[in-house]
Design brief:
This protein is an alpha/beta fold. The protein contains 16 helices and nine strands. Strands 1, 2, 3, 4, 5, 6, 7, 8 and 9 form a nine-stranded mixed β-sheet that branches. Helix 9 crosses helix 16 (331-349) and helix 10 packs across helix 11.
């Protein structure tokens, strides 16, 4: 056999192998559900789309209503979602209920992740803060600087918006009621403590124009000037301000939390989902997220790629200066108490 023929055969074999690999990759699909709005748009641009291009995995995106949707799919045996974005507390509770697949950290590399920003069932995708935001047309730069100010309708008259579900709703109320941040979860670890927080929200309820149900909604409320202040997620407010919204916020007494990605129990494409999570957890994807929304990476190596400037880093929730002002969310509390607290919260809303 001549050298020319051998080379031609070898090249042909390589091309065939590459095509076969591409075909195999193209056969792989994952369906990802997140919360829509500017948040999912940022995820799509920074994570989902480039990872799909680099791996050949087809990504189908949906919006969903949170772990209640996962619970319904798993309980009915009709699971269509492969990956879901979740708040860390909700994921912790869902894992305790047996709604999630354990993650394979032999496949997903978390060696450069910040400690505590991943669990057996959910891997961190970004760090965010639940903040008090205000309308600068109403208050100028002198808006509420802590939760006591937010709840003080004499010092800060005007309408409020507040979260319509329990996650991130009780902690501000207790701090407004004088509980020190470091004692919040101890107080909340009883039905009496939860009731104390609910009573504080009941005081504010006549001034709450909207109980919001999504980040897109609370951002739009501020952008349209429909309320004077609201609780919500810092990155959504930054994007609203970029779009012309008159909104500012403070990290003081904010809740430091992270969103994560989980795989519902019985996901139809579990192995591909694990592979995709491994890809989007890499620093070269996470370092792009702050370009689209001001949430911090969970992979600390993302700060070392040169994509995140010092100026941008200083505006992120997980920067040391900002993090020091905040109360980290307790996943242990949410795993143990969220279900009870959620029922009590819904009762308060319907009073």
């Amino acid at each position: 056999m001549t050298k020319h023929i051998k080379t031609t055969l070898a090249l042909g074999l390589m091309a065939s192998t590459a095509l076969t690999g591409a075909a195999l990759a193209q056969d792989k699909t994952v369906t990802i559900a997140s919360w829509g709005g500017s948040y999912q748009e940022a995820q799509s641009k920074a994570l989902f789309e480039p990872a799909a291009e680099n791996t050949g995995i087809e990504v189908k995106q949906e919006t969903y209503g949170g772990m209640s949707d996962v619970r319904l799919q798993v309980s009915s045996g009709q699971v269509t979602l492969d990956i879901v974005a979740s708040g860390s507390g909700s994921a912790s509770r869902a894992a305790a209920e047996g709604l999630l697949e354990p993650l394979d950290y032999d496949v997903i590399d978390v060696s450069t992740f910040y400690p505590g920003l991943y669990s057996d069932y959910c891997i961190g995708g970004d760090v965010f803060s639940v903040v008090a935001a205000w309308n600068t047309d109403t208050y100028g730069d002198a808006g509420p600087q802590n939760w006591a100010d937010f709840f003080d309708t004499e010092k800060f008259p005007g309408t409020r918006a507040y979260r319509g579900t329990v996650s991130g709703a009780l902690e501000p109320a207790l701090m407004a009621d004088g509980v020190a941040p470091e004692d919040v979860y101890e107080v909340l670890s009883s039905e009496d403590g939860i009731e104390r927080a609910l009573d504080k929200i009941r005081e504010l309820k006549p001034h709450i124009a909207v109980f919001w149900s999504s980040g897109a909604q609370h951002a739009q409320l501020m952008k349209d000037g429909e309320v004077d202040m609201t609780t919500g997620w810092n990155g959504r407010f930054d994007n609203a301000a970029k779009d012309g919204g008159k909104v500012s916020y403070t990290f003081n007494q904010a809740l430091l939390d992270y969103d994560c990605f989980a795989i519902p129990k019985g996901a139809p494409n579990k192995d591909t989902a694990m592979e995709f999570l491994a890809e989007i957890s890499k620093a070269e994807y996470q370092d792009d997220l702050p370009k689209y929304i001001t949430y911090g990476p969970t992979n600390k190596a993302a700060y070392e790629t040169g994509e995140i400037s010092a100026e941008v880093a200083a505006s992120l929730p997980s920067s040391p200066e900002n993090a020091a002002k905040q109360l980290p969310i307790s996943l242990d509390w949410y795993a143990e108490w969220e279900q009870v607290a959620a029922e009590m919260y819904q009762e308060m809303l319907t009073e």
